[in-house]
Amino acid sequence: MHALNTAGCIRIFSDKKSGKNAEREELWKALAYLREGDTLVVPSLDRLGRSIQDLIAIVSGLRKRGVGFTSLHEALDTTTPGGRLVFHVFAALAEFIRELIVQGTNEGLDAARARGARLGRPPAMTEEQVRHARDLLARPGNTVTSIAKLLGVSRNTIYNYVPELKGGRLALAEATSTPELPQPTRSED
């Protein structure tokens, strides 16, 4: 507070909660208070953003609105060409780091696929459960709800795994019935 008063700040906003919380009411009030030509002053960069990406997003938003930014501890002032340069270097480094993370993630996923690892969410129903559901659905007394409860899945899951059911039970019966093969004829010699 002393550093902000010494810097000549007209209005001071101070959050009492931890900076790691997403709900920083006073920060949002301060950002809403600022008008074009104003400068947001913080004692240090860590007081404004929880991460470099968060910090860059906030300062970029300020710049678009014509609001300057100054960090006292780091002597960073985006109202000067040198301060803007330093901040652009921060932004470029953050983007570079993000791209490295994405590249590493994609390489890891590709390696896992090459090893035959199954990626993503596990299926809600096994093939055996789908067959069982189809068998149960063929019986007119069974409802989709009762079958879903029996199998421990939702009604929507039943409809997703037995898509022919969307056309009604008649469509299901037609899809699950196998056409009868013609019986071989005996020739009497």
From TrEMBL:
Gene3D superfamilies recorded: Homeodomain-like, Resolvase, N-terminal catalytic domain
Q: Where is the Resolvase/invertase-type recombinase catalytic domain?
A: 1-116
> What UniProt keywords apply to this chain's record, in alphabetical order?
DNA integration, DNA recombination, DNA-binding
Database matches in Pfam families? HTH_7, Resolvase
Return the similarity comment.
Belongs to the site-specific recombinase resolvase family.
The entry's protein name is Recombinase family protein
Kindly list the organism's lineage.
Bacteria, Bacillati, Actinomycetota, Actinomycetes, Kitasatosporales
